[in-house]
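Thread: quick sanity check before group meeting

JM: Hey all, I'm pulling together slides for Thursday and realized we never actually wrote out the predicted structure for the chain we discussed last week. Dropping the sequence here so it's in one place. If anyone has concerns about the input, flag it before I start.
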Amino acid sequence: MNKEDIINLAKLARLELTENEVDKYSQEIGSILGYIEQINSAIGESEGDFNLIENSGDRNVFREDTNADEPETYKDSLLKCAPKTKDDFIQVQKILNNDNGSN
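JM (edit): ok, ran it. Output follows.
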């Protein structure tokens, strides 16, 4: 990355950088991007079109959503543990004051 790219990124991030910081970040980000290119070329030679920077396709890596327990399986036992209940709800102390119309 050149200095102008760093200055534009700093403006987008609303950062004020000194000239020394611009030089420093330009070199550091340039070396990081160079390192990523080296990794991409090494992986590309050994495993085809795999690229760390560009997404080569979406795939779902998460398990299928399942409900291990039937709804309301534990409702009765949880309500029995609560100090105070009303209907099928746990009753708690009121914490908001609406007497004068404010909070």
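AS: nice. Strands lie at 85-86, 89-90. The first helix runs from residue 3 to 12.
JM: adding both to the slides.
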